[in-house]
Amino acid sequence: MRIIVDAMGSDRRPAPDVRGAVDAAREYDVEILLVGDETRIRAELNKLGAVPSSVSLQHASQEIEMREHPALAVKEKKDASIVVGIEQLKQARADAFVSMGNTGAVLAASVLHLQRIKGVHRPALGALFPTPQGPCLLIDVGANTDCKPEWLEQFGIMGESYMRAVLGMEQPRVALLANGEEETKGNQDVQAAHVLLKQRAQSTGMNFIGNVEGKDIAARLADVIVADGFVGNIALKTAEGISKMLNDLIRSEIKSSPLTMMGGALAMPAFTKVKKILDYTEYGGAPLLGVNGVVIIGHGRSNEVAVKHAVRAAMRAVESQILETIRSGVTPRA
Predict the structure, then answer these.
(1) Among 75, 83, 150, 169, which residue has the least CB neighbours within 10 Å?
(2) CB half-sphere exposure, 50, CA atoms < 13 A
(3) What's this model's pTM, rounded to 2 decimal places?
(4) Could you report the per-residue pLDDT of 8-25, keeping only the tens digit for each?
(5) Could you say which of 282, 308, 326 is where a domain stops?
C-alpha cells in the first residue's frame, strides 16, 4: 500500500508532516510518498537519520496557505502540494492522500480532480468525536452549508458505511443533530431529512434512532451523528474549545499550591488516561467521504503523532474498501 502525505500541510510544516509520515513507514510497513518542497523535505529527513527506503519524494513548488480562498488557490496554484498529491491519487499512483492543510482546498481539489462518487450529491467531512465509550462520527463538520434534506440523508448513509467498514460496527446507530429529540424539532430541512432517514431505515434496515441534541454527542447516544456542515463545525470546535479550557484550568489549579500539586501527582495516572481518551491525535484525521478516492484531512496544529495516525486511518479505509461500500450504499432517489 502507498499513501501520499502532503508535507506542506500543518501549521509547523514540514517537520510534523515528514516526521509523522516516516514514523508511519517504520511502524506500519507502508510506502509513503511525501509531496512538497523537496529542499525543505530533504532537510527534515536528514535530521531523522536512517529513513526507510519505502519513503519517496514528489516535488511541488507551491503551497496553499490556510488564509487563502480554497477554490481560487486550487485553480491558480497547479503545482501546490495539495493539488499535486490529489492528482497523484487520481492517476492511481497511490492508494490514499493525507493532508493537515487547508480543508477547503483539499475538498476543492478532490471534487475537481477525483470527482464525486456516482449518486453522491455532496462529499462530506466526518470527524471522529472522542468519548469514554469510544469514538462517534460527526458528519458533516465543514464541507457543506445550507444542506438540503437529501444531502443530509446521504451523509447518514456514508457515515454508516464508514463506521461499518472501517471501525467494524455491525449496525451503527445513526441520528440527526437537532435542537430537540422530537421529530418536529429543527428547521424545515432537518425535519425533511428526518423523514428521509426514517424511510431509509424502513427500506434498508439502517439503524436510524431519530434526533439527538448537542449534549448527546459526548454521551455517545449514537455512532453516526448527521449535521449540516455549518452546525457540525460549530459543535466540533465548541467541544474542542471546552476540552482545552478544562485541561488548562485543571493544570492551573493543580499548580496553585503545594497541596494540590501533591494531589495532582497522585491523580496523574487518571489524568493521563482521560487525556488519551480525549486526544484528537489518536484518530489522526477526518475522512472526506463521497469522492472517488480515500482522502484524510487533519488539524493544522497536528503533531507527528497525529500525522502518523492519519496515515493509519487512511490505510484502514483502503483495506476496508470504503469506496465500494459507499458506492453500494448510495443510490439516487427517483
Answers:
(1) 75
(2) 2
(3) 0.89
(4) 999 999 999 999 999 999
(5) 282
Distance, CA of 333 to CA of 67 (rounded, Å):
38
DSSP state of 146: S
* Angle between the N-to-C axes of helices 15-28 and 38-46, in degrees from 0 to 180, rounded to the nearest 10: 60
Q: Which of 243, 258, 282 is the last residue of a domain?
A: 282
- β-bridge pairing 55-59 and 294-297: unpaired
Domain carrying residue 247 = 125-282
- pLDDT score at 272: 77
pLDDT digits (tens, 9 = 90+) for 93-108: 999 999 999 999 999 9
Beta-ladder partners of 177: 212
Residue 241 confidence (pLDDT) above 70: yes
Alpha-carbon gap, residue 100 to 212, rounded angstroms: 30
Q: Does 109 share its domain with 141?
A: no
Q: List beta partners, residue 225.
A: 138, 175
Which segment, 121-125, 162-166, 275-279, is predicted with the most confidence on average? 121-125
Query: How many domains does the chain divide into?
Result: 2
Q: Are 102 and 2 within one domain? A: yes
CATH number at residue 317: 3.40.718.10
Residue 37 shares a structural domain with residue 53: yes
